[in-house]
Amino acid sequence: MSEKVPVLDIHDLSVEFRTRSGVVKALENVSFDVFKGEMVGIVGESGSGKSVSAMTAMGILDPAGKVTAGSITLGGLDVLTASEATMQEARGHEASMIFQSPRTALNPIRTVGKQIGDVLRRHGSANRSDVREKAIRALENVRIPDPARRLDAYPFELSGGMCQRVMIAMALSCQPELLIADEPTTGLDVTTQAAIMDLVKDLSAERNMATLLITHDLAMAADYCDRIVVMHAGHVVETASTETLFSAPRHPYTAKLMQATPRGSGSLDDIASIPGSLPDLRSQLAPCRFSGRCERHESVCDTAQLTLDQISVGHSVACRRPL
To answer: How far apart, in whole angstroms, are the C-alpha atoms of residue 143 and residue 179?
Structure first.
């Protein structure tokens, strides 16, 4: 039996940004993968490297950013050596991305139908005669009522949740193998958040599509993801199935994240903040970037570079003194 090949495979990826105040070591030796039909969540505080990982995988890293090590394979394509023309073709067919703040991502002076049509024509999924019909079908697929009328609406005429559905329709219009959802529920009320995530989950299952969910909301990741990757300050510190991670977290940072996450059955008194803050990524950094915030820190933590080691099947941790 042949081994399953991931749709997205990121291995030992390191990225830095050159700024006026110094070099920011945004990612260091980041590795994770996503397989067809599963949803993988990347969680961590703001600044942990979640979005940088995704944008590098899509080939849309900011010009100030530079990949210094590692590899990225997307549907068999070597992202880091591919030409921009090749990546433009891959974006849409191989992978699509939903950005946070859909009102910002959508063009305010073009109707949503024209914007969906742009995507369909760009990737050869429709010609002039059938582009409107396919755009209507794209809105139907994301369960927008009266899609023919909504097609002629401008983004400012739609609610935040409706705009996010339009973004999902655009992302899925070319049948990608991988969907990257970067904080897709930012700015939405709780009920709309659940509706959007239910939609993403259902569409992913219907299409047997690989999905990468980037979120700071650990509770959301627990509800929707099959596996979870925990990031802190540019490092992957733990990865496991959702069930394993929540039943037995091994990295101190993961445990702290869980303690800082509200629970439906608990009270506010049960929530504990994570001490300290993310380290300055422009400075000389310790092998473990969580060491300055960790209650379990000892001298052994400052010896050699950390590696993400498997401690059980499907469960890996980067820590010299795991829980």
So the answer is: 18
Q: What is the CB neighbour count within 10 angstroms for residue 208?
A: 10
The per-residue pLDDT for range 2-12, each reduced to its tens digit, is 468 999 999 99
State both tokens at 1: 């039996």
49-82 residues labelled b (16+ CB within 10 A) or e (exposed): bbbbbbbbbbbebeeebebeebebbbbebebeeb
177 close to 124: Cβ distance less than 8 angstroms:
no
Residue 77 identity: L
CA distance 207 to 191: 25
Phi-psi region of 48 (alpha: psi -120 to 50; beta: other; left: phi over 0): alpha
Distance CA(278)–CA(255), nearest Å, equals 16
Give per-residue pLDDT as tens, 45-82: 999 999 999 999 999 999 999 999 999 999 999 999 99
266 CB-near residues (< 8 Å, 6+ apart): none
Alpha carbon distance 125, 115 (integer Å) = 14
CB atoms within 10 A of CB 37: 15
DSSP one-letter string for 187-235: T--HHHHHHHHHHHHHHHHHHT-EEEEE-S-HHHHHHH-SEEEEEETTE
- Tokens 């210094």 map to which residue? 68
Taken in order 317, 318, 321, 323, the sign of the CA dihedral is negative
How is 72-103 classified by DSSP, letter by letter?
EEETTEETTTS-HHHHHHHHHHTEEEEPS-HH
Read out DSSP for 236-266? Answer: EEEEEEHHHHHHS--SHHHHHHHHTS--TTS
Handedness of CA 12, 99, 208, 118 (dihedral sign): negative
d(CA 243, CA 228): 9
CB 57 within 8 A of CB 10: yes
